[in-house]
Amino acid sequence: MTGGLPALLRGRTLVAVVAIAFGVALGYAVETINGAAVGALETGLATLSGNADLEVQGPRAGFDERLYPQLAAVDGVAAASPVVEVDATIRGRDGTLTLAGVDVFRAASITPSLVGSGADRLDLLRPDAVFPSSSALRWLDAGIGDTIVVTSLPNPFTLRVAGRADGATRYAAMDIAAVQDAFALNGRLTRVDLRLVPGADARVVEQRIQALLPPGVAVARPQSRLDAATRLSRSYRVNLNVLALVALFTGSMLVFATQTLSIARRRPQFALLRTLGITRLRLVTLVVGEAAFVGAAASIIGIAAGHALAWVALGAFGPDLGAGFFRGQPLSIPFAPGPIVAFGLLGVASAVIGSALPAREAGRASPAAALRAGDADIAAPVAAAPGGLMIVAGILATLLPPVDELPLFGYAAIALIVVGGILVLPSVAAAALRRVAAPHAVPARLALAFMRASPGRVGATLAAMVSSVSLMVAMAIMVTSFRESLGDWLDVMLPADLYVRAAADGAFTKDERDRLSRIDGLARSEFARATTIRLDASLPRVTLLARDVDAERMATRLASVGDVRLPAAGAPPAAWISEPVADALKLRAGDALTLPLGGRNVGFSVAGLWRDYARPQGAIVVDRRSYAAQTGDDSVNEASLWLAAGARAADVSAAIVRTAGGAGRVLVATPRELRRLSLAAFDRTFAVTYALEVAAVVIGLAGLSAALVAQTLARSREFGMLRHVGMTRAQLGTMLAVEGATLAALGVAWGFVLGFGIGIILIEVVNRQSFHWGMQLHVPWLALAGLAAALVSLAALTARIGARQATSMAAVRAVRDDA
Asked: How far apart are CA 718 and CA 695, in angstroms?
C-alpha cells in the first residue's frame, strides 16, 4: 500500500504534464503555422511589388489610367509602372489564377519579377502569351509551350505558356494591353508601382501623390498590403493563442493540486528537514524546483508535439487553420527559435505558478505540529475576499474598449474571473455544504462531515476541474451561439431558390443579364454588382453590394440589427452598412455616409445596420440603379432567382450555365448547398476549438479522477480507524462515492457558473471586439447536462475504485503508525 499514493501522485503529475504540453503544443503550432504563412505572403508580395517604394491602389474595379502620367510626373518619382491585376478561372482547375498585366518596359526597373522570360522576347508583347510563376506552373500542371484556357469571360480564350516568371506566388504575367482588352478594362488600372528618386523623402512624395488622387484611390507603401492581410487573421490567431494559454492555465491548476496533495502527504518529512536545519527558503525552492522540472519536461514534449501538429494542421486545414485568410503555395515549417523559447518558458512558468501557493504553505508549516502522525490536511484555504475582488475587477474590465482592435481587456476579464473563481471555490463549497441537510445514513453523514471540515482540500481537489469545465462550458456556449446564429443568418440571407455568381473577376453584361432573367422556369430575378471600395487609406477595402433594393422590405432581406431609418424625400439615397463598417466609422442609422464611386464622393444616408458573417472586413448595400448612375457600370456578377411553380432547380441551373457560356464562367448553387458549404467552413474554422473542448473535458476528468484516488489513498489511517469502530468496507465505499459525487457536483456547478459568465464575455466582448460580429445567445443545454451527469457519475465510480484500494489493507496495519 505504501506505493499506492506515490504512484497516484505520479499519475496526477503525468496528467499535469500532458495539460501543459498540450497548451505549449497548441500555442507553438499556431504561432509557427502563422509565421510560415505570413512569411510566404510577405515573400509573395515582395515579388509582386519588386523595388516599388509606393503603390497607388484603388477599388477592385480599377481607376482611370489617365492618372498614370500625372503620377509619373510627380517631383520625387523616378519611375512608375502601371499594373492591371485580375483573377481568372482556368479550364480544368479549381480556384483562380491571378493575371498581372504590365508594361514590360516600365516594369523592368521596378517589378522585374512581373516581366516574364522566354525564348522569344517579342512574346512579352503578344496578347496570347502568358508567363506563369513556378508555383502557377505546378498548379496548372503545364510546361513551356502548353496552352491554357481562361473560362471566366463571355468568350473563353486560349493563352500560350511562352515562358516563366520569377517567384513562388501563384500568378502569371501578361502584357497590360492584352489583359485590359480581354477583361473589358480598357482605360482602367488597378495599381501603379512607384520608385522614388534616391534620397527623396517618402512622406513628402506620398503627400504630393495623395493630393492628386480621386476619392477611393490611395497611396501606400507595399508593406501595407501585408499588414492588411495579416490584420484580418490576427484576431483569429490571437484567440487561438489565448486558448493555448488557457490550456497552460489548466495544467498549472493540475500542478497546484498535485503539489498540494503531495505536500500534505510529505508534511512530516518537510518538518523533519526543518528540524535538521533546512531553511524555509530552501524548502520552498525545493518544491518550486520540482514544479519547474515538470514544466520543463512538459515544454520539451509540447514543442516536439507542436512541430508535428503544425505539419498535420497544414495538411488538414491549410496555413490558416481552416479560417480562409491565406491561400497559395504549400508551406514549409521553419526552425523558429523565438517561439520555441517563448512557449517553452511559458510551460515552465505555468508549472512554477501552480506550485507557488503549495510551496508557500510547505515553508510556513510548523515543524512541531507537522511531525505528529496522522493524516495531514493542507493548510487553511486562501481567504475568499481576494478572489471576490478579482471577479469584480474582471466584470469591470469587460467595460473597457479594445486595444489596437484586440480585446485585451476581455481576455484579462476571463483570466481574472477564472482565477478569482478558483480562489473563492473553498468558501463557495463550504457555504453550499452548510446548506445540505445532514443525511440519516452514517456513510453519507461522515462524507458530508469530512468535506465540511476540509474546505481547503476541496478547493485543491476541484481547482483543475473547475478551470477545465469552465473553459469547456464557455467555448461550447460561444461556438453553439455562433453556429446557430450563422444558421439563422443564412435563413434570412438566402430566400431565393437559386444563386448565381460570375466566376473570379467576371461579370454579366446587360444583354446577358436580360437573357438570364428570361430563362424558362424562373418566376422572379434580382441582380447585384459585388465589388470592393476603399473608404479610408488606413482601412482595408470593404465590399460594396449594389443590388436591386426595395427599401420597405430591406429589413426582412438583410439580417438587420437595431432600428431602420429610411431617408426622407430629397435626402441622399439609402445605404445599409454591416457591423464592422459601423464600428470602424462610428456610424449608426440616420447618419450620413460618403462613398467613393466613379472617382467622386457620393453622399448616402445610413438606413440601418445588418449582420454579415461572410465579409469580416465589412460590407455596404446600396441600390444598384444609384450605383450605375454614379459609376456608369451597369454590369452585374450575382443573381438571386426564384423558380416558377413546377420548375426543377437542376433544369434551370443547366440552362443558366448554357446561357452564361459554360461551367467555367458561372457558379450556380441552391440555398441548401450554400448552407452546407457555409457550415462546413465554420466547422473547419473551429476545428481547433473543438479539439480544445475535447481536451478540456479529458483533462478535467483525468484530473478529478487522479485527485479523488490520491486523496482516498492518503486517508488510509482514517479508514483504518473507522474499520476499528465497526464500519464495513461497503460502507466506506458508499461514503467515498458520496464524497466523489458531491465534489464533482460542486465542481461542475461552479464551473458552469463561471463558464456561463465567460461565454457571455466571449460573445459580447471578445468576438465583438475581435471580429465586430454580433450573435444571439444559444446554450447547448442537453450536451451540458450530459457532460455534468458523466462527470458526477465518473467521480462516484472513481471514488469507489479508490475505496477498494484504500480499504484492502488490514485495519491494524493502517493505524499502526498513529501515536
From this structure: 35
Question: What's the one-letter identity of residue 284?
Answer: V
Give the type of residue at 138.
R
Bridge-partner residues for 193, per DSSP? 55, 81
Query: To which residue does cell 482602367 refer?
Result: 188
Angle, CA of 98, 100 and 102, to the nearest 5°:
175
Q: Which amino acid is at 203?
A: R
Kindly list the distances between the CA atom of residue 200 and the CA atoms of 51, 53, 197, 204, 205, in Å, as whole numbers in the listed order.
15, 11, 5, 8, 7
Mean pLDDT for 595-610 is 93
Distance, in Å, from the CA atom of 661 to the CA atom of 683, rounded to the nearest integer, reads 34
- The half-sphere exposure of 212 on its side-chain side, counting CA atoms within 13 A, is 19
Q: Which three cell numbers stand for residue 355?
A: 506550485
Distance CA 236, CA 600 (A): 35
458's grid cell: 476541496
Integer CA distances (angstroms), 686 to 388, 679, 682, 755, 771, in order: 33, 10, 6, 18, 15
For residue 620, give the C-alpha cell.
455596404
The one-character DSSP state at 165 is B
Across the range 42-67, mean pLDDT stands at 82
Cα Rg of the chain (Å, integer): 33
In the numeric block, which cell numbers belong to residue 335? 526552425
Q: How far lies 458's CA from each of 263, 390, 466, 507, 751, in Å?
A: 15, 21, 11, 67, 14
Q: Provide the sign of the torsion angle of the four alpha carbons 719, 724, 729, 735, taken in this order.
A: negative
For residue 590, give the amino acid letter.
Answer: G
Pull the grid cell for residue 196. Answer: 522614388
* DSSP assignment letter at 403: B
Look-up of cell digits 429610411? 566
Residues whose CB is less than 8 angstroms from the CB of residue 671 and which lie 6 or more positions away in sequence, other chains included: 490, 494, 495, 496, 497, 499
Three-point CA angle 588, 220, 545, nearest 5°: 40
pLDDT digits (tens, 9 = 90+) for 424-481: 988 888 888 888 888 888 888 888 888 888 777 777 777 777 877 888 888 889 889 9
Nearest to 271 by CA among 375, 376, 361, 368: 368
pLDDT of residue 247: 64
Q: What is the DSSP string of 346-401?
A: HHHHHHHHHHHHHHHHHHHS-HHHHTS-SPPPPPPPPPHHHHHHHHHHHHHHTTSP
Are 471 and 755 contacting, i.e. CB atoms less than 8 angstroms apart? yes
Place of cell 478579482: 390
Determine the residue type at 654: A
CA nearest to 561, candidates 806, 775, 731, 332: 775
Give the whole-angstrom CA distance, residue 775 versus residue 791.
30
Sign of CA dihedral 282, 286, 288, 293: positive
Percentage of the chain lying above the pLDDT 90 cut: 36
For residue range 139-151, list pLDDT tens digits in order: 999 999 999 999 9
- Using DSSP's 3-state secondary structure scheme, residue 126 falls into coil
DSSP lists the bridge partners of residue 375 as none
3-state secondary structure of 298: helix
DSSP label at residue 110? T
**Burial state string for 702-733 with b = 16 or more CB within 10 A and e = fewer than 16:** bbbbbbbbbbbbbbbbbbbbbbeeebeeebbb
**How does DSSP classify residue 551?**
G
| DSSP, residue by residue, 52-88 | -SEEEE--TT-EETTHHHHHHTSTTEEEEEEEEEEEE
Average pLDDT over residues 275-295: 82
pLDDT at 262: 66
Those residues whose C-beta lies under 8 Å from the C-beta of residue 342, and which sit 6 or more positions away, are: 31
Residues facing 100 on adjacent strands: 85, 173
Give the C-alpha distances (Å, rounded to integers) separating 555 from 90, 566, 579, 611, 639.
39, 11, 15, 11, 19
Specify the pairing of strand 77-88 against strand 191-196: antiparallel
Of the candidates 719, 721, 740, 714, the one whose C-alpha atom is nearest the C-alpha of residue 730 is 719
